[in-house]
Amino acid sequence: MPLENHEKARFLLHRALVEGISLEDRRWLDAHVGQCAECGRYADLSARAVRALDWFALELDPAAALRVENIVRSRAEEMRSAESRAKSLWIGTGVAIFLTFTGSAVTWRTLAWLASQWNLPSRVWQIGFAAFWLLPSLLLALLPLFRRRLLGEHSDSKGQTI
Amino acid sequence: MVAVVTAFSRVAESESQCIARALRRRDSEFIGRIVSQYHYRLLRYLVYWTSRRELAEDLVQETWLRVLERAGQYNGRLRFEPWLFSIARNLAIDHLRKQQTATHRMCREDEAGVDLPAPDFESPFFAAARSEDAKRIAAALGALEPIYREALLLRFQEELSLAEIAQVAGAPISTVSSRIHRGLSMLQAALGGGADAA
After folding, report:
1. How far apart are CA A27 and CA B86, in angstroms?
2. Residue B111 has pLDDT above 70, yes or no
3. What are the E-state strand segments in chain B?
4. Which candidate, B98, B103, B95, places its Cα nearest to that of B59?
5. 0.80 exceeded by the pTM?
6. Distance CA A160, CA A157 (A)
7. Which residue of A159, B57, B78, B123 has the fewest CB atoms within a 10 Å radius of its CB?
8. Among residues B116, B95, B119, B98, which one has the least CA distance to residue B107?
9. Torsion, Cα of B111, B117, B119, B122 (10° steps)
């Protein structure tokens, strides 16, 4: 039997195990393996090698498995809580900034009207508006974002507050 | 047949998308279930990588915590297993690299006369071997490099496709195929196919 037939058979045997072969190749291979004792033994050895991997079943420790499950579950809950708090914080900050600007617009118009009633120079009431209304409002609106730093809180590598 | 495969792939896809959603929402109940569902397979994969049962168990927990941290990176379009195993793989490699660095440092200390602890692990493959043939296979598996053991496990026990194994291993499909072939040849040699080894 030509050597190339054996080489082809071993190539197809390997390929059949690893990624599959066409029906035509399968028929050729089955026919060859049926006739060639050496390739038949090689095929049998290949199949046994694959089956041998099933001999190694690990024994599971149920307590250890449950411990891992509980740890991961707890961590998921912590992350969900932290993300929920962060979301509320951003929403609150957004609302505060919005109210700052809308409130500022109303205040601006009110001050402009009062200034016109009292004949105050524009520069005076505008500077007063910036110093005593706009800046403090913005700072208060942004305060929650810097709460942690101001209170000396830090997060550890797992995102928990310490 | 094509219709069955398509239907099956749709079901599998839905499961992946459920997992992706649960991870993003941090659904602790669902996450607990998938931890339980994949525990054995993940442990087995890490044992095949590290050959150390205790280390593999530690890495299982670390893998899941890393999965939680990176939940946003999994969109459920592909199967969950390749993504899970690739995270486990990276953790195992990082750990083994740190161990190698520590060993080199210890070797330098040894030159100064410090006693080094002897390696004390028993191969989990030997521990699981129940027959003489199994012990021969265990020896062959223990002698294989992790990348060959990994290829064998993912192909023949996890039944991942070559493309999925390539995704996990970060290697081309041709390389994966070669690794499977190499691993099989070693096992064949252990079973008595010595003429065809290597």
Report:
1. 37
2. no
3. none
4. B95
5. no
6. 7
7. A159
8. B116
9. 170
Contact A50 B156 (CB under 8 A): yes
What phi, psi does B115 have (nearest 5°)?
A: -75, 130
Q: What is the mean pLDDT of each run of 10 residues along chain A (162 residues)?
A: 82 89 94 92 89 82 93 94 88 84 86 88 85 79 70 52 50
Q: What does the alpha-carbon distance between residue B64 and residue B47 come to, in Å, rounded to a whole number?
A: 16
Query: How far is the C-alpha of B136 from the C-alpha of A56, rounded, in Å?
Result: 12
Contact B184 A58 (CB under 8 A): no
Whole-angstrom distance, CA of residue B152 vs CA of residue B176: 10
Rounded to 10 degrees, the C-alpha dihedral B77/B80/B82/B85 comes to 150
A140-158 as b/e: b if 16+ CB within 10 A: ebeeeeeeeeeeeeeeeee
Instruction: For residues B110 and A118, give the distance between their C-alpha atoms in angstroms, rounded to a whole number.
Output: 89
Length reported for chain A: 162
ipTM comes to 0.76
| Binding-face residues of B in 129-188 toward A, CB within 8 A | 129-131, 133-134, 137-138, 141, 152-153, 155-157, 162, 177, 180-181, 184, 187-188
Could B32 and A68 be called an inter-chain contact, meaning their C-beta atoms sit closer than 8 Å? no
Chain A hits for B40, Cβ within 8 Å: 58, 60
Closest residue by Cα to residue A11 from A44, A39, A34 = A39
